[in-house]
Amino acid sequence: MLPICLEEIRRCRPYFIGLLGERYGSQPGTLPPDLLQREPWLAANGHRSVTELEILHGVLNNPGMAEHAFFYFRDPAYGDRLPAGASRADFIAENPESAAKVQALKQGIRASGFPCRENYRDPKDLGAQVLRDFTALIDFLFPAESVPDPLDRDATDHAAFARARTGVWIGKPESLEELDRHAEGDGPPLCVLGESGGGKSALLANWAARFRQRHPDMLLIEHYIGATADSADWAAMLRRILGEFRRRLGVEVEIPSDAAALRATFANALRS
User: What residues contact 241, with CB distance under 8 A and at least 6 apart?
Assistant: First the structure.
């Protein structure tokens, strides 16, 4: 469980939300050698709970998380007004030793200087506080006047999708070479087929990264189905490609809203 928790925290950086009630949590037990090799700081902290290790890994050991992490402590009196059927043992420290540890952890968080919201009453109150804090954070980091151009935003989303599929691909070099030969030729379009989850996107993402490195001055438009909300919409895809033609290649083209006209405009742009 611990390796999965730490990896999810890494994926969410630089953002972190820490929730603490009155339970300290369980200790991880024996730590696997490969995890200790990746995270050597765990060797001296195996006696701490998984919850505390998550907080150390996510925030307290990482000064770069300043202004991106928030902690929320539940009102201790929540245990006295539990919903019908709820077990008090699920919300309150198991024993005095655990109670002391969770209080020490909270005190350490308070002393860290990270934003700490005390005594949220219930999940609804917590939700309102998180929404308020992260709305303010997002408005600060991404002010309305700095909203990127839609083409830049799409390109960034597709690039992020591709990056997630590079470095983990195990394939055959000859597949990349075959794609190279096709790109260097003047034949018809090439269609890569395969079962869902078979690695088509990973293959093309890795090939595109290599191709771009070898040909930095050549226009390469990457579009991945699933990278954005409208990535599977053919009309949105054609409008994006036409937009890139216009700004990157200087192709003078008006992008129509009508589907039939869009098809004809795209075909004409390819001939330009």
Answer: 221, 223, 266
d(CA 106, CA 233): 48
Q: What is the pTM of this model?
A: 0.58
CA-wise closest residue to 58 among 75, 34, 41: 41
Angle separating helix axes 234-248 and 150-163, nearest 10 degrees = 110
Q: Work out the number of other CB atoms within 10 angstroms of the CB of residue 99.
A: 15
For the segment 23-38, what is each residue's pLDDT rounded down to a tens digit?
888 888 788 888 888 8
pLDDT tens profile 14-73 = 899 999 999 888 888 788 888 888 888 888 887 888 899 899 888 888 877 878 899 999
**Cα–Cα distance, 128 to 92 (Å, whole number):** 24
pLDDT-derived band of residue 168, with 50, 70 and 90 as boundaries?
A: low
Residue among 217, 219, 210 nearest 180 (CA): 210
